[in-house]
Amino acid sequence: MNDIKRKVYIIWEDSRSYTGWQLFGENYRTEEIKTIGYVIEETKKHIAISSSIGEHMAADVLVIPMKCIKEMYDFGLDKSTNLARIF
């Protein structure tokens, strides 16, 4: 299995799109996103997380630029981790 050592809970800022005609002066803003996943790659520029991992594969990989991350919490990979305490 890949050397997956941690799972994370990330709060990050994402872009937002508005389709169709918009009035000037609308309250345009970005969107705060909350994501949980397994870290499969991390560099100075980005972090790649997966919702599910297998022996040699990862599913639903999301790459988040480090500049977009507001908060990040690490969790151990043991069965005793209780995510319900965080929310």
What labels would you give this structure?
mainly beta; 5-stranded antiparallel β-sheet; two-stranded antiparallel sheet; 0% helix
Name the overall outline: elongated
Number of helices: 0
Strand order across the largest sheet: 6-3-2-1-7
Per DSSP E runs of 2 or more residues, the count of β-strands stands at 7
Spell out the helices and strands N to C.
EEEEEEE
Notes on the protein architecture:
The protein is mainly β and about 90 residues long. The chain has one domain. The protein is built from no helices and seven strands. The strands form two sheets. It has a five-stranded antiparallel sheet with strand order 6-3-2-1-7, with no helix packed on it.
Topology of helices and strands:
Layout: E1 7-14, E2 31-42, E3 46-50, E4 52-53, E5 58-59, E6 62-65, E7 69-75
Antiparallel strand pairs: 1-2, 1-7, 2-3, 3-6, 4-5
Short description:
With 87 residues, the chain is mainly β. Helix content is 0%, strand content 46%.
